[in-house]
């Protein structure tokens, strides 16, 4: 350390010889050179360094602001998406509930309409059975009547002779004549 202070002290004691030379003692000249360089750097570099630091600070602040804005935008979008999701879930639940109730309603309507159709078919069946029974009864009546008529004609033809036959026809004609006069 004594060398360093001696080099500063010896600066004041240099002989003013008129010669110029290099001091090759590195340990003695190095602190002087460093202090000169640092002084020049501080004096001239202070503004540049300050500007660089200010620019860097502004870039960092802008990045932080942009990040905050992006975060707020992302939060807003997330909230909107969550609101839409809740809305869609509620609509889906409502569709599901409405769908189930609609299915139940349709099922009941189908069951009711099926019962009505079955009831109508039962009525048609009963009407058809009654119609067929009446037709069968009428056919049986006609056959019985035809057979009775044929039997009566056969009996009349075998029992009646021509004279009795003519008297029966004349009596019937007379009866028709009286009935005609009554209706006129």
TrEMBL record:
Recorded coiled-coil stretches: 64-98
UniProt GO molecular function: proton-transporting ATP synthase activity, rotational mechanism
Domain of life the protein comes from: Eukaryota
Compartment(s): Membrane; Plastid, Chloroplast thylakoid membrane
Main location: membrane
TM ranges: 32-49
InterPro entries the UniProt entry points to: ATP_synth_b/b'su_bac/chlpt
GO cellular component, one term: chloroplast thylakoid membrane
Membrane topology note: Single-pass membrane protein
Record keywords, A-Z: ATP synthesis, CF(0), Chloroplast, Coiled coil, Hydrogen ion transport, Ion transport, Membrane, Plastid, Thylakoid, Transmembrane, Transmembrane helix, Transport
Pfam family of the protein (one): ATP-synt_B
UniProt record similarity statement: Belongs to the ATPase B chain family.
Subunit structure comment from the entry: F-type ATPases have 2 components, F(1) - the catalytic core - and F(0) - the membrane proton channel. F(1) has five subunits: alpha(3), beta(3), gamma(1), delta(1), epsilon(1). F(0) has four main subunits: a(1), b(1), b'(1) and c(10-14). The alpha and beta chains form an alternating ring which encloses part of the gamma chain. F(1) is attached to F(0) by a central stalk formed by the gamma and epsilon chains, while a peripheral stalk is formed by the delta, b and b' chains.
Role summary: Component of the F(0) channel, it forms part of the peripheral stalk, linking F(1) to F(0).
Miscellaneous comment text of the record: In plastids the F-type ATPase is also known as CF(1)CF(0).
Identification of the protein by name: ATP synthase subunit b, chloroplastic
Phylogenetic classification of the source organism: Eukaryota, Viridiplantae, Streptophyta, Embryophyta, Tracheophyta
Protein encoded by which gene: atpF
């Amino acid at each position: 350390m004594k060398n360093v202070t001696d080099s500063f002290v010896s600066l004041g004691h240099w002989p003013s010889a008129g010669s110029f030379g290099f001091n090759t003692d590195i340990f003695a000249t190095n602190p002087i050179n460093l202090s000169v360089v640092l002084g020049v750097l501080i004096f001239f570099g202070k503004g540049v360094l300050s500007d660089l630091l200010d620019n860097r600070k502004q870039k960092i602040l802008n990045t932080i602001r942009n990040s905050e804005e992006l975060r707020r935008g992302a939060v807003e979008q997330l909230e909107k998406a969550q609101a839409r999701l809740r809305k869609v879930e509620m609509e889906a639940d409502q569709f599901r509930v409405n769908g189930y109730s609609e299915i139940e309603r349709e099922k009941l309507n189908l069951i009711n309409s099926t019962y009505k159709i079955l009831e109508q078919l039962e009525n048609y069946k009963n009407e058809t059975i009654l119609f067929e029974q009446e037709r069968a009864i009428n056919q049986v009546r006609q056959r019985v009547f035809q057979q009775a008529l044929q039997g009566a004609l056969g009996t009349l033809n075998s029992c009646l002779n021509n004279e009795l036959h003519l008297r029966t026809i004349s009596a019937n004609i007379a009866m028709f004549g009286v009935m005609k006069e009554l209706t006129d």
